[in-house]
Write a structure and sequence with these properties.
By secondary structure, the protein is mainly β. The protein has 2 domains: 212 residues, Immunoglobulin-like, CATH 2.60.40; 138 residues, Immunoglobulin-like, CATH 2.60.40. Helices cover 4% and strands 43% of the residues. It has 3 helices and 27 strands. β22 and β23 form a beta hairpin. The longest helix has 7 residues. It is elongated and about 80 Å long.
Length: 365
């Protein structure tokens, strides 16, 4: 782990404190601490001791919104930590399908009870040379434990694209970029330091740090509880996200009218001793890129001691994912999922597996 950490540190510090334009209010992430950046052009010590008082958090470091200029000869890289978030998992996409990542997943290798600490950074290349996006970060808790940055750029190489504005790669001279970096941390972490160690990119060798107060940050969770028919829930956000809604549920014990290719017809009655349960389901792409629709086999009707997958149902109002049928941004796919159950069965819940870690459940009682 230590060897890998050293390999991941790509850039550390000499320091001039200033306020990056647009960052002096401390950033926009949930739980972000507002700071004025009043230290402006005051020179700072390499250990960041002119920032947050150690007596306040048990750690030393600069305040959120304060920037540091790292130098390499005549070249400069300006960096500021602007806001923080805590979340139980990250929602993104694996190729075209909604996906998720938790701290205990093999690519992260942390504990099941841990959270992701996400730190928003603003990076500006104020020099004349193109640099790689800085990756040399670690998080140190007030108790002294050290946590590696999650290498999202490696996960992206396998097809995962999480809605973290990472944009790993080159930073052209004069370019400015906002990105998120993440660390798995214990759920009870109250404070710590984000350390930028940029010596491997030929900047001055001393690291810089920002003090992070996590005690007032409310963790984001993806436990949606049990929903009622008519309610919807969004998994993800406007970067990558889908909103699912069960609009209606009804039962049919005999033939019922529907249409196919615009023509009305009577759908066959269920076999003797059975009934149909028809779930009217809608899925909306709330994000800015195309995402695959949730497949019907990931939608399950459940009762007391039983569960049923959807049966074949061919009509104009059928919900079907179809072959390679993605949802464009803003598009909604809606229709009926049909289940055949015993006539005396009492359907209790309808469950949709949105990702491998997030299942939405609706109560049918």
């Amino acid at each position: 782990m230590e060897t890998r950490r050293r390999l991941l540190r790509l850039v550390g510090a000499s320091a001039t404190v200033t306020a990056i334009a647009g960052c002096t209010d401390g950033g926009s992430g949930p739980g972000g601490t507002d700071e004025s950046g009043e230290n402006g052009d005051t020179a700072g010590s390499p250990d960041g001791s002119d920032g947050t008082d150690e007596a306040d958090l048990g750690v030393q470091g600069r305040d959120l919104g304060e920037s540091v200029t790292f130098t390499n000869g005549d070249n400069e890289l300006r960096l500021a930590a602007t806001s923080v978030r805590l979340t139980d998992l990250l929602v993104g996409a694996e190729y075209a399908s909604l996906a998720s990542l938790t701290p205990e997943d093999p690519w992260v290798g942390s504990d099941a009870d841990d959270l992701f600490l996400l730190v928003e950074l603003q990076v500006e290349n104020t020099g004349s040379t193109t640099y790689q996006q800085p990756l040399g970060f670690r998080f140190e808790t007030a108790e002294g434990t050290e946590h590696e940055r999650v290498a999202f750029e490696e996960i992206s190489g396998l097809g995962f694209a999480f809605p973290i504005r990472q944009q790993y790669g080159q930073l052209q001279a004069g370019a400015e970029r906002t990105m998120w970096i993440g660390f798995p941390v214990p759920a009870d972490t109250a404070a710590g330091r984000l350390v930028a160690d940029l010596d491997m990119a030929a900047f001055d060798p001393e690291p810089e740090a920002w003090a992070l107060d996590l005690s007032s940050v409310t963790p984001e969770t993806h436990d949606f509880g049990t929903l009622d028919v008519g309610e919807g829930a969004t998994v993800g956000d406007s970067s990558l996200g889908l909103r699912a809604t069960v609009r209606n549920v009804r039962e049919e014990t005999g033939q019922f009218e529907t249409t196919y290719s615009g023509n009305e017809f009577e759908y066959d009655a269920p076999p003797e001793g059975e009934k149909y349960v028809l779930v009217d389901f809608a899925l909306e792409n709330v994000s800015t890129r195309q995402l695959g629709a949730i497949r019907p086999y990931k939608m399950t009707l459940r009762g007391d001691g039983w569960e049923e997958e959807n049966a074949s149902y061919t009509a104009d109002d059928t919900y079907h994912r179809g072959t390679y049928q993605g949802l464009d941004p803003g598009e909604t796919k809606a229709g009926i999922l049909l289940y055949t159950v015993p006539a005396d069965a009492n359907p209790e819940t309808f469950a949709v597996e949105m990702t491998s870690h997030v299942t939405l459940t609706w109560s049918l009682n």
